[in-house]
Design a protein that fits this description.
It holds the Pfam family GATase_3. The protein is α/β, with parallel strands linked by helices and about 240 residues long. Strand 7 and strand 8 form a beta hairpin. It binds glutamine.
Length: about 240
């Protein structure tokens, strides 16, 4: 089996180790003998997303988000088609904001998003920074996600589901305890850190979804993740105490 992972704007959206998510996806596929091709999708490149099995967006500053927002206009039609067809997507922070309707900067400028997530983001004076623990509910499984967040944007969900409930930290907006957003196989989240090496369950949800979409029923073997799980437990214990 083989997966093609699309890395959106790797030169513009890559904050706080977000590239580590690509490395984690690649490694977890290789450990299962699944071939991986990483396709970098940059501004100005024409992409129809038909041969992309899994798509990743990292975070970026307002300046970079503006450039990406302009470029997404030409990619929007094909990207939405692939998402509606079930392509799994992971988008972090600035990338997450760009999948929503818009991101309104502190100066009041609206940076247009794809509008695939029924959510909008408004910048605030206070940056929401720190370690974060989230309780996620996905596919009838409950598990913790740990990470680090750093954003000024506050995201508000309308008619869409959060990825989980904030236990420690701010999440979408620091007000309603919601973190991230899920639509079809699209996951938006504020968790940098990077997210996937710290939370292998999330990496495997993306990989398994991509494989079943491409190959139908597959035999998806679990990996030995005891070190990752111990690290996560230590993280949770440490920050729950404070
Ligand atoms: N510019 C956005 C914000 O501060 C996104 C930042 C990020 O991706 N970390 O809200």
């Amino acid at each position: 089996m083989k997966l093609t992972i699309g890395h959106m704007y790797p030169d513009l959206l890559n904050l706080y180790g977000d590239r580590g998510n690509i490395i984690a996806l690649k490694k977890r596929c290789e450990w299962r003998k699944i071939d991986v091709e990483i396709k970098e999708i940059k501004a100005g490149i024409n992409e129809n997303f038909a041969d992309i099995d899994l798509l990743f967006f990292g975070g970026g500053s307002d300046r970079e988000q503006k450039i990406v927002s302009e470029d997404l206009k030409s990619k929007k039609k094909n990207l939405i088609k692939a998402i509606e067809d079930g392509m799994p997507v992971l988008a972090i922070c600035g990338g997450y904001q760009l999948l929503g309707e818009y991101y309104k900067t502190l100066e009041g400028n609206k940076i247009e998003g794809l509008g695939i997530l029924d959510a909008y983001t408004v910048a605030s004076n206070k940056r929401l920074i720190g370690n974060i623990v989230v309780e996620a509910h996905l596919f009838n499984k409950k598990f913790y996600l740990v990470g680090f967040e750093n954003h000024s944007g506050k995201t508000f969900l309308r008619n869409c589901s959060p990825l989980g409930t904030v236990i420690i930290g701010y999440g979408n907006n620091g007000e309603d305890k919601k973190e991230g957003c899920v639509y079809k196989n699209v996951y938006g989240t504020y968790l940098h850190g990077p997210l996937l090496p710290k939370n292998p369950e999330m990496a495997d949800i993306l990989i398994e979804t991509a494989l079943s979409r491409k190959y139908g029923k597959i035999n998806f073997e679990p990996l030995e993740d005891s070190i990752e799980q111990r690290a996560k437990e230590a993280f949770i214990k440490r920050f729950m105490k404070k």
